[in-house]
């Protein structure tokens, strides 16, 4: 495994902006590189690829095109411990087994090298004659110490990055460095009196800069994927969102219009309730395809929800496990009196702007209300 140092990015030659006709750009985008990298779960590989015209006519589907598509950005999100990094390791294992170079960028949690080596040794294709002697040598590892390091590496990359023969780029996690640089609006507004900033335009720019940075990052990732034929896999964290939702909902930390357009495939990883009579329900995870071929899937179909288990040698799909129980939508009651409502609607924080821990705090005067009702 090669570990790169890119702290000297400021000495690189300035990049030039090269213009070319729009027709040429359209032709290049239409000729995007084909191919895919397996996730290690055949059922999930099948669910990621949309039906084609050949499938409708009854022709055989090419199994090599199932999986994480090359030339596009794939996002994996879910709560902590759901299996996001395990899925990323499984995809990296598939690429390394094929002799392809893999770039792994971590922003906090170190790369589990021992587990990756174990997955490579115990993989089903470990006895194949065309397996590289030491596949882990094709892994290029970066550690982004801060958000500026990550942005510099991706937006103003040094010479030779990414390598021409690289097939997969993994960022674990792409959202991990954002909270320390972009405080939530409540914390930001509390600092304004001390900063002395009074200009409304400047305040608005400071509040929106997170989404500007997110947009630039999303556009650059799409460019890297298209120009180098890379399969880019992003691990995105989650937060709780209340505003505009029927109930508290887990949503990706990095979001927005431009970011949404950048993501070609989105997979949600979670654990859910199973029927009580299901004997093999312990340790079952679910991967649900939420977006495919650049289109959001509005309907939750069973074929898009793939159960799997995490084992020491990789991920194992489960064939006969029923889909997770989806709780019915409960209408929100609107008949509460004003005295029963402790918080106004506009006081409920939107976790897309504020941290989840601050959304469930006590309101001033709640203790008194509880004392009155205790008698």
UniProtKB/TrEMBL annotation:
It comes from Aspergillus oryzae (Yellow koji mold). Pfam families: Rad51. PANTHER family: DNA REPAIR PROTEIN RAD51 HOMOLOG 3, DNA REPAIR PROTEIN RAD51 HOMOLOG 3 RAD51C. One of its GO terms (biological process) is meiotic DNA recombinase assembly. Residues 348-369 have a biased composition (Acidic residues). GO terms for molecular function: ATP binding; ATP-dependent DNA damage sensor activity; crossover junction DNA endonuclease activity; four-way junction DNA binding. InterPro entries: AAA+_ATPase, HR_Repair_Mediator, P-loop_NTPase, Rad51_C, RecA_ATP-bd. Transmembrane segments: none annotated. Coiled coil: none annotated. This is DNA repair protein RAD51 homolog 3. It is found in: Nucleus. GO terms for cellular component: Rad51B-Rad51C-Rad51D-XRCC2 complex; Rad51C-XRCC3 complex; replication fork. Its main location: nucleus. Gene3D superfamilies: P-loop containing nucleotide triphosphate hydrolases. Keywords: ATP-binding, DNA damage, DNA repair, Nucleotide-binding, Nucleus. Signal peptide: none annotated. Residues 33-238 form the RecA family profile domain. Residues 320-375 are annotated as: Disordered. It comes from the Eukaryota.
């Amino acid at each position: 495994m090669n570990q790169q140092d890119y702290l000297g990015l400021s000495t690189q030659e300035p990049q030039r902006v090269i213009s070319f006709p729009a027709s040429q750009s359209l032709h290049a985008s239409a000729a995007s590189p084909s191919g895919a990298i397996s996730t290690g779960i055949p059922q999930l590989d099948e669910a990621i690829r949309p039906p084609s015209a050949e499938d409708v006519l009854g022709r055989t589907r090419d199994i090599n095109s199932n999986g994480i598509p090359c030339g596009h950005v794939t996002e994996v999100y879910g709560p902590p411990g759901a299996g996001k990094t395990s899925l990323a390791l499984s995809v990296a294992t598939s690429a390394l087994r094929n002799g392809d170079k893999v770039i792994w960028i971590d922003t906090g949690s170190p790369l589990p090298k021992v587990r990756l080596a174990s997955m490579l040794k115990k993989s089903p294709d470990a006895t194949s004659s065309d397996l590289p002697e030491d596949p882990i040598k094709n892994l290029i590892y970066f550690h982004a110490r801060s958000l500026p390091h990550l942005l510099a590496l991706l937006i103003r990359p040094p010479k030779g990055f990414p390598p021409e023969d690289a097939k997969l780029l993994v960022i674990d996690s792409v959202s991990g460095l954002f909270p320390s640089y972009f405080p939530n609006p409540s914390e930001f507004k509390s600092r304004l009196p001390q900063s002395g900033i009074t200009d409304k335009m400047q305040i608005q720019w400071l509040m929106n800069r997170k989404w500007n940075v997110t947009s630039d990052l999303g556009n650059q990732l799409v460019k890297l994927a298209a120009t180098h034929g890379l399969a880019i896999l992003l691990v995105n964290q989650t937060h709780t969102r209340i505003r505009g939702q029927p109930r508290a909902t887990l949503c990706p930390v990095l979001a927005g219009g431009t970011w949404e357009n950048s993501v070609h495939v989105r997979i949600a990883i979670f654990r859910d309730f199973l029927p009580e009579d299901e004997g093999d329900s312990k340790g079952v995870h679910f991967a649900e395809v939420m977006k495919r071929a650049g289109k959001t899937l509005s309907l939750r179909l069973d074929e898009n929800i793939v159960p799997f288990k995490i084992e020491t040698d990789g991920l194992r799909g489960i064939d006969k496990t029923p889909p997770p129980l989806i709780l019915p939508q409960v209408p929100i009651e609107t008949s509460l009196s004003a005295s029963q409502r402790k918080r106004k609607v506009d006081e409920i924080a939107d976790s897309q702007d504020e941290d989840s821990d601050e959304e469930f705090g006590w309101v001033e005067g709640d203790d008194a209300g509880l004392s009155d009702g205790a008698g």
